[in-house]
Amino acid sequence: MTMLRPRAFISISPPESRDAYAPQTHIPALQDALRGMARLAQMNDCRLIVRDHPAVADLMMDALGCPSPHLLLVPGDATAAQVTYDHTPAVAFFMGGGDGIMRDYAFFCRCPDVRCIPISATGQTAGAIDKIQRDTGHAPPMIWDTQGDALGFDRIASAMNYLQRCTIRRGPGGPQP
Fold first, then answer.
1. Is 41 within 8 Å of 70 (Cβ atoms)?
2. Model pLDDT, residue 68
3. Burial grade of 142 (CB within 10 A; 0-12, 13-18, 19 or more)
4. Which of 1, 32, 52, 113 keeps 20 to 30 A from 174, CA to CA?
5. CA distance 122 to 126
6. pLDDT digit string (tens) for 83-140?
7. How confident is the model at residue 173 (pLDDT cuts 50, 70, 90)?
8. Mean pLDDT for the stretch of residues 9-14
9. DSSP codes, the chain
10. Could you tell me if 105 and 94 are in contact, meaning their C-beta atoms sit under 8 angstroms apart?
11. What is the C-alpha to C-alpha distance for residues 91 and 50, in angstroms, rounded to an integer?
């Protein structure tokens, strides 16, 4: 059995003009949140899983250095199911305003071992996910404990501290409890 560094998947799809939530993406907040995640990943010895999109990958490589044991780039067309099967994230962050984020959330919200953390200030899609979680009562404790957290930094820090306490074991047949 192999011990793995705790992992967080970042679902971020830069908006396209055809996306329903595209006009409401807040780029500076999104960039600040990514830089904050990069710093906390280094401090907590966690790995961030990000789809390989030029704008996002470049920002993360600048923040973490390249190569970095704290960054794992997956193909841009990787599905949430593929990411989960191949890389076993314990947390999924949702950021920005692209429609792909909602598709990822629809998958991850059904995974009992993955905590879903929307960063509302980054865009309308993330804000919609935050509202869904609050309305349905499915928000993890780190969401309820940070209600005054306008930009999401407390949520990010709380999730990264949670990751630091996680131990992921992978044996034959995939992730083990």
1. yes
2. 84
3. buried
4. 52
5. 7
6. 988 888 988 998 887 778 889 999 998 888 888 888 888 888 888 888 888 778 766 6
7. very low
8. 81
9. -EEE--EEEEEE----TTSTTGGGB-HHHHHHHHHHHHHHHHHHT-EEEEE--HHHHHHHHHHH-SS-TTEEEE-TT--HHHHHHHH--SEEEEESS-HHHHHHHHHHTT-TT-EEEE-GGGBHHHHHHHHHHHHHT---HHHHTTTT-SSSHHHHHHHHHHHHH--EEEETTEEE-
10. yes
11. 12
- Tell me the domain boundaries of the chain: 2-14+21-166
Q: What's the pTM value of the predicted model, to 2 decimals?
A: 0.80
For residue 74, the model assigns a pLDDT of 92
pLDDT at 107: 92
Token pair belonging to 93:
């962050």
- The type of residue at 137 is G
Which long-range contacts link 69-78 to residues 24+ away (Cβ below 8 Å)?
69/5, 70/38, 70/41, 70/42, 70/45, 70/46, 71/38, 71/41, 71/47, 72/7, 72/47, 72/48, 74/49, 74/50, 75/51, 76/51, 76/52, 78/51
Instruction: Determine the topology of domain 2-14+21-166 in CATH.
Output: Rossmann fold (3.40.50)
Q: Encoding tokens for residue 108?
A: 């991850």
Residue 135 contacts by C-beta under 8 Å, 6 or more apart in sequence?
Answer: none
